[in-house]
Design the sequence.
């Protein structure tokens, strides 16, 4: 019977594969045509929307570059960060409590500590990060390296730029982060960020001015590196450009990049593991121990072995959870 069930399962999968293959062969051209039409229509809609944005800013590259990037940082940061501040201070809604990574800590959050964190974040954003965007704009104007504005990037270019940005950012962040944990730098540069042993969302920017300058300037250099890449007919051709900034992603790429980077930072520091989002537990562990999980992902931590303590911690936590569950079942049965 077991063999028959296995054969039946394989037969069903084979039939599904045959049906899909038949649909692709018979209707493949139609599907491709429909997809191309959808891409064309969506491209037209996005171009129309982009033109309305250009008109809103008066086709002024200063407003588009400086204030466009600032809006793409500030709006998602304070809307999502504000939501988490509300949740942490009022411990509401109650159903979110079960997703806390370190339950019982910062429940509720200390108001004075929260106010101090907001002050530090605002200073870092408006005295360092945002002025650096103005400096970046002025340098790009001086060196004639302003990114494209009037035409949207192709999908291929956008995806390549985003991929390069994420890879370079991951590499840069890991090694800069490890350097900041060096004993000669930690106390002066990075220790303030670790005052939050159980981080909250907006504590991603709760740093010393030196650290914020290092991270913000590093992010600017990351998107500057893309001018090393020339996109032509979908191929990547390496070239060297003049000027202090080496990368020219399209403004749309910058908007999406700044938005995603700050939302990811909020997620990594929020202190909650919601099942519908990637877990930030590795970075929570970093704030607890300070000697592991230095990257935004665990790719380079795996390469250098700085994730072993975290995985051991996860294994102990899982074993304890299973033990408690088993004891609860036994108590109920008695």
Sequence:
């Amino acid at each position: 019977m077991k063999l028959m069930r296995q054969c039946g399962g394989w037969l069903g999968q084979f039939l599904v594969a045959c049906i899909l293959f038949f649909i692709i062969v018979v209707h493949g051209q139609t599907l491709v045509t429909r997809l191309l039409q959808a891409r064309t229509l969506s491209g037209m809609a996005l171009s129309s929307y982009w033109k309305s944005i250009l008109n809103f800013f008066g086709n002024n590259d200063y407003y588009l570059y400086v204030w466009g990037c600032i809006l793409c940082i500030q709006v998602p940061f304070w809307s999502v960060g504000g939501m988490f501040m509300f949740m942490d201070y009022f411990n509401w809604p109650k159903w979110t409590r079960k997703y806390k990574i370190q339950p019982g800590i910062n429940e509720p959050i200390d108001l004075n500590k929260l106010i101090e964190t907001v002050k530090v974040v605002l200073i870092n954003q408006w005295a360092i990060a945002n002025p650096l965007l103005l400096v970046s704009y002025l340098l790009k104007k001086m060196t004639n390296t302003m990114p494209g504005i009037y035409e949207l990037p192709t999908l291929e270019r956008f995806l390549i730029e985003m991929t390069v940005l994420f890879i370079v950012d991951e590499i840069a962040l890991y090694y800069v982060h490890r350097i900041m944990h060096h004993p000669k730098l930690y106390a002066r540069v990075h220790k303030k960020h670790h005052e939050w042993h159980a981080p909250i969302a907006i504590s991603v920017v709760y740093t010393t001015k030196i650290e914020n300058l290092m991270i913000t300037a590093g992010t600017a250099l990351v998107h500057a590196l893309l001018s090393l890449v020339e996109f032509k007919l979908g191929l990547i051709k390496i070239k060297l450009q003049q000027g202090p900034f080496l990368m020219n992603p399209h403004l749309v790429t910058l908007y999406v990049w700044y938005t995603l980077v700050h939302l990811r930072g909020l997620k990594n520091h929020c202190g909650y593991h919601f099942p519908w989002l990637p877990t930030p537990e590795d970075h929570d562990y970093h704030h607890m121990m300070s000697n592991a999980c230095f990257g935004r992902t665990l790719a380079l931590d795996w390469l250098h072995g700085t994730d072993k303590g975290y995985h051991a911690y996860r294994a102990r936590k899982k074993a304890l959870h299973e033990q408690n569950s088993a004891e609860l079942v036994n108590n109920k049965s008695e």
Remarks:
- Residues 2-56 form the longest helix (55 residues).
